[in-house]
Amino acid sequence: MDEKVIVTGASGFVASHIVNILLSERFHVIGTVRSKEKAEKLLYAFEHYYPYATLEVEIVPDIGVNGAFDALFKKHPDTQHVIHTACPVSLGEGVTLEQSYLIPAVHGTRNILEATQRLGKNVKHVVITSSFVAVNNKSRANDPDFINFEESWNPITWENAQEDSREAYAAAKKLAEQYAWDFYEKNKDELPWTLTSINPPLVFGPQIFEWGLDRNQLNFSAEMINSALKLPPDFEGPFDFPNGLCSDVRDVALVHMLPLRNGNLAGQRLIPICGTGLRGKNYEDGKWNLQRILEVIHKNFPELKGKVPVGKLQNNKQYLDKVTNYNNDITCRLTGIEFKHFETTVRDTVKQILEYNSSRSKT
Fold it and tell me: Which parts of the sequence belong to the NAD-dependent epimerase/dehydratase domain (predicted)?
């Protein structure tokens, strides 16, 4: 019988790629989503990709509610692996930062771990999706001698993150991951499963299904690239912002699957970043800004000449050098992955968007 894997938040950008890899590897996947509509859409899409595969989708409307995953484990007691990606963000008028970020992140993590402890008696591996913001020590950002790596932690507290939504998000992701590791350390002698966290920076890359493009606004990272395509050719900048580190969604998905097969990844925090790997060790390729996106567009899509801005930064390296310093050698050594280059990631994303827009214009 195929090994059963629970994937929470299965309709998400990263999670749908994870489900894709798991099904291609003949895992029996139980995905969770928040609505019947999402469940039906996900099932229909993957049935066309993998008619032979086993995919079930269960509805968990609110992962922050106590016991949110209990019914799931009672229905699937033979589950062997858990990949927890779900972390919905609720924005809107009257919604506090705690309701938007902290409760879904921390309570969702608590609920999946407690349910796995009590009811997942056959679970061998738990993988949680964290973020590079849980790693990144921004207080040392201007220190050229400081390098973030797999054992680094963002020092921000929730009390100090109340004035800015980005800080609140970073604090919530850090606190959720810390909760997971504290829970594991406290209970590991009696737990039959291992824990691994995946800490990617901003995740770029193509959608797994066309309906991921069928909306007025794409997911956050894809919309950054889509927005660059929409800029008027006489746009004056700034071209050094937005900026940061990035990863490719296909690599991020693969890294989520590997702990289910590679025991050396137990107890690790893994940081997939574009362009890095044992052979390349290119710590600069994963640093990006708008200028780099535009350069990839012009290099690979000559038909867009005169339709999108070229960008006016003559020495972009001086701006990219201000992006966070990091080292993910531990991740590269343990996984053996040569992570996709920034150009490949952006090129594939732009190609998909252009092809989709072209097909829509013909209908």
Answer: 5-212
